[in-house]
Amino acid sequence: MSRSGSFGVNLCDKCNNEIENVAKDFIDKNVLDPALPTLSRIPKLASRAARSRPTSAPMGYENRQVLLGSLEKDVPERSEPRARDRAEKHDLTKEVKAACKVLNDYLMKPERGDPNKLKTAVTLIQQEWFRVGSPANADPNVVEDYMDGFEEYSRHLLHRIVNMADINGNTAIHYAVSHGNFDVVSILLDSKVCDVSKQNKAGYTCMMLVSLAEIKNDTHRHVVQRLFQLGDVNTKATQNGQTALMLAASHGRLETVKLLLEAGAEPNVQDNEGSTALMCAAEHGHIEIVRALLAHPDTELSLVDNDGSTALQIAMEAGHKDTALLIYASSNFSRGSSPYSSLRIRKSTTPRSTPPPSRPPRTPPPPSPARSRRSSSSH
Fold first, then answer.
1. By C-alpha distance, which of 377, 376, 360, 300 is closest to 331?
2. Of 9, 274, 324, 363, which cross-links 315 as Cys (Cβ 3.0–4.6 Å)?
3. Residue ranges of region Disordered (predicted)?
4. Cβ neighbours of residue 340 under 8 Å, at least 6 residues apart?
5. What is the distance between the alpha carbons of residues 99 and 101, in angstroms, rounded to a whole number?
6. Gap between the Cα atoms of 266 and 245, Å rounded
7. CATH superfamily of 1-41+65-76+87-205
8. pLDDT digits 0-9 by tens, 284-319
């Protein structure tokens, strides 16, 4: 026997009861299923000076956890794209289809929407979408099938679901890039509805999180390039003012640093502590990243942080003599030709969508007590 359920479509009694019970449970809790992995409890990133000991774990594991919070661990990352097997199709369940109809009807005619039915539908869709798209081992084939199912209703519905955020403001692409699941990232970008500039509640975009991931092959590189072309690579995290370039420089991601510079990342942007990407790389002794930043025609070597230290002084204090020598040589001799010299022409001929950040004033060195505090903290 079938009857019209709460979602306005004909369902059997069993299905109708199931969806109503599930919906009631969600509404009573007023949160997502606690079993759903979320990028929760994201603490403030440590200062540049406090992160003086680089980790040897893959992807800077400890520092990545500071950015991402609690995530599923020990799930192998995908290194090669999966072949698409069209013989196996993953359809939406009846309950999810019913919920999609309610949400899509609301998007088409908001004035006719029932608030209670809408809330139930959104909660059910959100729970199912994150169940499929957020795990570290999310199957790109399943994700694509679900997106195809959503698009059968409308592009508006697909846009709404793909950009749904959990209680911490993280979307599916936040999860995919943090896990290094570039197959899923590529599928989300292919949809052309994914908001790559959306910040979570901690202020991090997916472009910042992908700066910690390891680029293992040309496929990964192409996906990251696409990602950087679609958003503002100079967006600052709200907690500490860091950019994707600073994060990549701190964690030794040379390939990502190069891709960011090619995409228009500004090397002189300073975070809340006055640090630049060059200072971050210098402190950690990432000499090849320092070399890449020095090759950029706009990189300023005389900028100082809030302690009054330049990148050269920071490299010396951290004991990275080779890095310090490279910076010293660059500041006292001609830099020569640069692979990024064409950026000057591009900047003068291509209008910006947003004005470049103003260069911070070159503050004089602080009194000697402040310098002694930095010196004592480094021993």
1. 300
2. 324
3. 71-90, 334-379
4. 261, 262, 295, 296, 297
5. 5
6. 8
7. Ankyrin repeat-containing domain (1.25.40.20)
8. 999 999 999 999 999 999 999 999 999 999 999 999
